[in-house]
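Fresh eyes needed here. Have a critical look at this protein's tokenised backbone.
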Amino acid sequence: MDKDFSQYKKIISDFRGNVLKPDFEAKYAAATKNLAKTDRFLLKMELKRLAAPCTRLVDLRGHVNGECRPYEHEERVHYLDDLAIKVFEESVASYHGYTFGVYEAVTNTENNFRVIYQKEKANIQIPALKADKKILEKTQYPAKLYQYGRYYNRAEERMNFAVSITVGLNDKSEVQATSSDLSVNGCKFRLNSLEPLKLEQTIFITFTGFEQEFEFGKVNRFEYKIKNIQLITGGQLVGVERVYQEGQESDGFKAFLKGFIRGNKRRYKINLDNTIDAIQARSLEQFILPKSSELPVFIEEQKGNLLPKYALTCNNNQNTYQYWQDEKSLSTLYFLITPERISQLKKLRARNKSLLVYSFIHINQEKNYFYTADEKQLLEDPEFMQSFLGFAASKESFAITELSIIDVEPASAHSPFALSDTLTKSNEYLNMPVPEEVKQTLTELPYIVVVNDLSDERLKQDYAQLNFDKINTTKLKKFGHKRLTNPPVVDEVGINYKNQRQEARFIYTTPSIVEISGLKIKGHSQDFSASGLKIILEKPAVLTKGDIVHLSFPNLQKVTSSFDLKGLPYEIIHINKKKNIINLRVYVEQHQHIGRAFFKLLIDKNKNKLTPDEYTLMSPELAKALRNVYSCSSLIPALMVQTSGSRYKMEVLAASENENGKLIASMGALSDSGQLYNLYPLLNNIQAVTDMSVVLKKMQEDDEPFCNILYIAIDPSVSSIEQSVTTRYESDLATPALKYEFIRDALKKGDFYCLQIKMSRADEPDMEHLNPELSYISSYAIHRGKQIEQDIWSVTGVIQLFDITQEALIRNKFYPSISVTSSTKKENVES
């Protein structure tokens, strides 16, 4: 309707919600007696339209100057900010339901960007919104913490059902209670008093609420054992399990419960708490692990020695994995993870400490020679330590690596779906137990050493200022590693939930020549597919991602005259840190690509002769088991970035149960809610967060992570969060002196943290992996299922939070004219 009713606002307001009342016509006629007949009719139609029921969903994310959150009304989930919720509730009360009048009131609030723009265009003075002041003074950035890795399956379904029961605590004492859920062999009930209960205590329950309507045999008092006790406001929530005496396993009460739950579970709803928790955590795990920047290395015991055996790799940690390779692309992780360092890591773990290793690579006669020194070795000679770090930082190959150790728990290799054994046969393969041969392999892997590459050009510049003119070359040689004739083999295992490759890839070595801007670089292929290949160059080259190069294959040209295999255009889609391994895909300049046609024909005619590159090694089940083991143990928390309309929101933290970092605890202490964590230390710099959002919008899934460094000071003695927490980005502390002053002041007043954040664009979720649990939830609570699915698809980025405080303190120790005077700092540096 195009008519402008703005001049009738008072009449519309007075009659909203009154259209269906018996006296509407009389009152309306009296109120509009001075209006023209046509206007009176159109206004009445407008009032009836506004009072008509509405089914539209409201999503204000990105449309209002406020933080939106899910708001449920009559099983519909809207996304509203605080102002919109207030308007919604007031309008629903006036219209006596959700109508078009409610919808339009909510979508035209004062803080709606469209409304603001229209008023600005009309030169209407816009009053300062209280919400703006709240945003300027915002000190709470609430986030919920999800723990992934362990998913607790229930032996049977539970139905939410409240029934009166009598609980016999002993022969003399009985209390009245009400059940909250029921299963065939157990239940949970609420006590409105604090009783002296303990785990494994035997109690007796009489289901008095059932006795009035049902019969299930002569016995009406049943024995249960307490399995869990939860203190709640005003009482206790107690979970119990049925105890059967010999011959009771199939009594009448058990048969009654089976039929009762089967017949009523859709009416009273299945208790889905554990399944919802599982899929929420499992979906986050699926986003995070394939974007891991840390490199998990499984350690195998070989003839009494602990040596690296399996490395879990993905796109983000490929540079770390490839750094520790020699010129033949053979792994040299055994130089980094030595038996001595493993022993040291086991001691440091008890103090929640890691081990820093500094390294560089010397190339002589086209052979790689690795030099590594860990902080324990260097601290034994502080003068040489300074020289070594300055000398190493002068090398292009300088790297800072942090090592941590985790025990392998073979039981966590199996991650069952939390479906109470209701999987259909078509989905059973997704829930298969770990094969025996994989179990045997896991028993031979006692530890995981997590390799974190902290290398950053900004950190390197700090170390490069250290003087190394008088370095002792004799001492330096002691840190060089001898090349082994038969080095231990480290197998690469891919972290993936589904095969991201669109076509088969085969291992094949043939000489190749890479040409760019007249420069020719020799190399050889490692593997190929019809549309791409990996090339290992004889020497590092100045190439970057996105470059178009031209490839020639001299040996392959000898075996074909039908194809011209010279100067074929390819695009570089990935290059390693050493600049000697490039991944390429065909670059189509015209309608076809000769290289793609040739390799497709080569594959078709030689499928039985070519060796496929499985990437996940010899057993997909082994890859899955190793991934599950690591997910239960990961020490690196992650922050999820989700879309909220046209903007991003960060309200979800994810970590494994083993995460024990002090910063997470500090963010919990800063929160005004006991169930949430306050991300203020990470997000209080609005400009920096905005810049990250701009970067994320431009990122692709296979891009390298965007990296930044945060310096955080928290003074727990100050109650005001704004005054207690100070956050500086690397760009804010441009010189070593400024960093030193910040760290010194932070340690004097309270706690200091240094974080390296690595942000990646998230891949699309593998819904085949998530659908069994999601479908189970949707079958009993469709609105919850839709909400969870929407949350899954809203994830667009992953930010891993690496605590590099230990490295920052060591780096700080060598700043010019600095002596460690703070006892706290001294303890941290020397440990």
